[in-house]
Amino acid sequence: MSLDVGLSLPGDKAARQGFWTATPLHAVVAIFMVAIMLRGVLPFNVDVSWWLTISERMLDGQRLYVDILETNPPMGGSVYMLGVVVARAIHMRPEVVTNSLIFILIAASLALTWRALRFSSLRERTGGAAAIWATALLTVLPMYDFGQREHLALVALLPALAVYILRANGERVAPSAILIAGLCAGTTMNFKPYFVFAVGFCILTAAAQARDWRVLFAPENWIAGVLVVIHALGIVAFYPEYFTLIYPLVRDVYLLANLPLLVILPTTATMLWVLAIMVTLTLLSRRQKVDTALLVMMAGSLGFAVSFFVQAKGWGYHAYPMVALALLAAGWAVAAGSDGQATSRRLRAGAMLLVALIFANGCLRFAVSIDARVVQEEVTLIGPRPKMLMLSAANDIGHPAVRELGGTWVSRQQALWVREVVRQALRDGTIDQATADRLAGHVARERAGLIEDFRKQPPDVLVIDNQNSDWGSWAAADPELSVLLKPYVLVKDLNGIEILRRSDQARS
Predict the structure, then answer these.
(1) Residue 494 parent element (H or E)
(2) Residue range 422-429: average pLDDT?
């Protein structure tokens, strides 16, 4: 009895009979198991944690961009909302349910991608090694960034990528694949507007390779465009505050945190991406016939690279899709081999080793996180299920710890980043004092929101970050905050991270 799920090894008829047919499937399942075990070892991603908190608050009646401060479009909330809804229905932790749903999404994406290519000229190459490699890139490589919007955007894009490859080859595309590709491409762009570069570059490359301008107006592109327009109209209709409150804040303050291009270029992520592209181009140059699949993959990777540089933050998760897609292309090139030329075995072996090293280094890069367990342990000693607030611009200590402890995050935002961005920009000379004075309104609104949150739900635990900034002295000098801080006594000072507890009344 054979099991044919599109994971057969190419070019070997014997491998399609009996036990050997299932071997690639076994490898895919094994990689999924390793990735699942990693979820139990690595910390839960801080931004995914925050979106789960946002989803919970929205389900409890709070309004995004009014009661909750967030700079990203609402697509993130709608994606993670499902995990919270299911978790409440089956009485499980949202983190566990969300990770499970993401693994299901990855499996569905891989299955839909293979389904789109199963009758194409690439059918033999999409099974076996390609499926195993793609699984590793989607499940293991993200490491700490698992579940980030960039990760989900690449997962969503994969079935559309398959259709763009078919278009580049001038092959027939099934109606179901067209619909799925349009929905997937539209979803990817709705995560962040920047991702239009990845989708757009793939479409342009497909049209150029097919030498047919009509590919630019293929049905899947219209579907994706309609989905983006619907999403934009939905924001206008249901979240007008995103344009009236959040956009000015992003324009005036958030963009001040952007890094110069010369600072981002030498980052590890950029170097890994360049190496993967170089491997692909080297192997591609040895082929007599242009591999359109490689060109489309590299075009998508380049689009994500543009997104990475335009966002100008240099954060690891921003770089993940460009590195993963470049590695997918490199792995595809290594597996494809030559098309008649005497490609050096040493070259292929060297390329395979280099790709493996890039993957390993990528795993290390994307595993970087802040270990906040020391703070969490100290807060645990104060009491169970605490209400907690943190005076800090760091977003990876406070609310993730509260979620682990089953407590309540008091603040309306991840961290008090507005004051810190303006302060840093003034100190670094990015802005002058006149500009800082003009931005004082944004800083004042953040302070007012902090005081309102403090009074509405007086926290049981207060954490003050004096390690990276002067939050303690700032609060002590503020006439309203200093009064609010009087009932709190210092419990522990962890190298500048002060943990205080409320002492004047019983915990609520």
Answers:
(1) strand 488-494
(2) 93
The CA-based dihedral angle spanning residues 300, 305, 310, 313, taken in that order and rounded to the nearest 10 degrees? 140
Burial of 240 (0-12, 13-18, 19+ CB in 10 A): exposed
Query: Distance between CA 332 and CA 445 in Å, rounded?
Result: 51
For 264, the token pair is: 């981002």
Give the span between the Cα atoms of 124 and 118, in whole angstroms.
8
pLDDT tens profile 338-389: 554 545 778 888 999 999 999 999 999 999 887 777 788 889 888 899 999 9
DSSP code string of 274-296: HHHHHHHHHHHHT-SS--HHHHH
Residue 7: band (very low, low, confident or very high) from pLDDT cuts 50, 70, 90: very low
In whole angstroms, give the CA distance from residue 291 to residue 12: 22
Strands annotated E in 331-386: none
What is d(CA 489, CA 487) in angstroms, rounded to the nearest whole number?
A: 7
Token couple for 165: 């490859």
Please spell the DSSP secondary structure of 399-462, one letter per residue. HHHHHHHT-EE-SSSSS-HHHHHHHHHHHHTSS-HHHHHHTHHHHHHHHHHHHHHHHHS--SEE
Q: Is 434 exposed, middle or buried (0-12, 13-18, 19+ CB in 10 A)?
A: exposed
SS3 388: strand
CA 455 vs CA 389, 448, 484, 499: distances in Å: 11, 11, 8, 19
CA-closest candidate to residue 412, choices 139, 62, 5: 62
Q: Which of 68, 31, 8, 22 is nearest to 409 (CA)?
A: 68
CA distance 5 to 107: 12
Look up residue 289 and give its two tokens.
Answer: 């016939």
Q: How far is CA 326 from each of CA 135, 226, 375, 475, 493, rounded to the nearest angstrom?
A: 14, 29, 38, 47, 45
What angle, rounded to 10 degrees, do the helices at 75-90 and 175-191 form? 100
Amino acid at 91: H
User: CA 140, CA 137: separation in Å to the nearest integer?
Assistant: 6
Count of beta carbons in the 10 Å neighbourhood of residue 208: 16
pTM of the model: 0.92
408-409/387-391 β-pairing: parallel
Token pair recorded at residue 91:
């009485």
**In the numeric block, which tokens belong to residue 181?**
């590709």
What residues are paired with 501 via a beta bridge?
461, 489
Q: Please report which residue ranges of 217-341 form alpha helices under DSSP H.
A: 219-238, 241, 247-252, 261-264, 268-285, 292-311, 316-336
Encode pLDDT of 67-110 as tens digits.
999 999 888 778 899 999 999 999 999 999 999 999 999 999 99
